[in-house]
Model the fold of this input.
Amino acid sequence: MQQEPAEILNLFKKSEELVEMLRKGRAFTEELMCENERLRYRVVQLEAEHMNPPEMVTKEVERLRIENSQMAQKLDFLNGKFQQVEAENKDFAQRYVEVEEQNESLANLYVASHRLHSTLDSSEVVECIKEILLNMIGSEDFGLYVVDDESGELMRSGYEGETASGPAKERITLGEGPEGFVALAGHPFFSEGLDEGPCACVPLMIKERVVGVIAIYTLLSHKKGLSVLDHKLLELLAGHAASALISSKLYSMADRKLRTIEGFMNLLRVPQGGTNV
Amino acid sequence: MSNKSLLVVDDSATMRQLLCMTLTRVDGITEANITEASDGEEALEKVRSGNFDLVLTDIRMPRMDGLEFIRSVRSELNDQALPIIIISTKGADEDVRTGMNLGASGYLSKPISMSQLKQMVANFLG
Done:
């Protein structure tokens, strides 16, 4: 059978295409084999390096190890220092709070003593003491008692609240009740959590002589209790209150005597047209 | 804060002195910045004629109490902006509630914590 020339040409073209494909495939395979060899060689190299690292790498690793160790030591040191500073900071903060509280108490004391000694009028001194007990200490129910020189009893001079206003608190014998006991003993009394009786009783003293007593029966509702600083403040206030009360009392006595003498002197003066007595 | 003007209202001279002493410990406030009044009526007169940045007032006072003073400032003088702090003898008391309803800006209870007072004043005066 005779084949068509077109068919022959077609076959020839296809065979050429096939040869070209084979040629390209061969080139690609050769390229792959080269790359494979290169990569194998590189693997062998790296394995060799890993087993026997070059000296430079070894030195670098050693250096980094030493540096790491030093950094770790520094970190420990800084951590320790940080904790120390933190503890000191806490301590300073605590002391700052304490100093602020003491400062506040000193300011209260300064104002209280300034007010107490700014007047020689007994009633004003008593009012001042009441203001201090109410505004600075936070007392709701309290009594101020002064020792009566004649009877030797505690006489109520000022008060605020239900308990202190009762008839039983008008005069108290020395030695009776917490107020009388404190007046006799000359030492302050502070109770914590007792349901009955005053929560604080402080003697007013001049040198060793008790001239009166402050008794606090209840505090304002939002004041939980008397702190140690409140105790100190009360005791210091009591000293100032005592001297203020006695000063006003002495002034009042001296003033009365002076007026009496002045009146007497006026009587002795010769009136117009009269005779000398 | 050096150009701020404060008014302290209390019938107790002790309390006024104590408040003034504490206020002068706030940065920028001196005695020259503080005016005193001994009752609500005197305070109202001063507020009318002056220009205050903050008022601290007691409640229980003669002639005009603190509540009446607050009411007068807010309604008669129509001053809603003036900060008024109540100094109360008892904490969450009826007087404090009434005062806050009338337009008080805050309250402190006696005995006053000076650090709280300083903080509150510093907050209001910026």
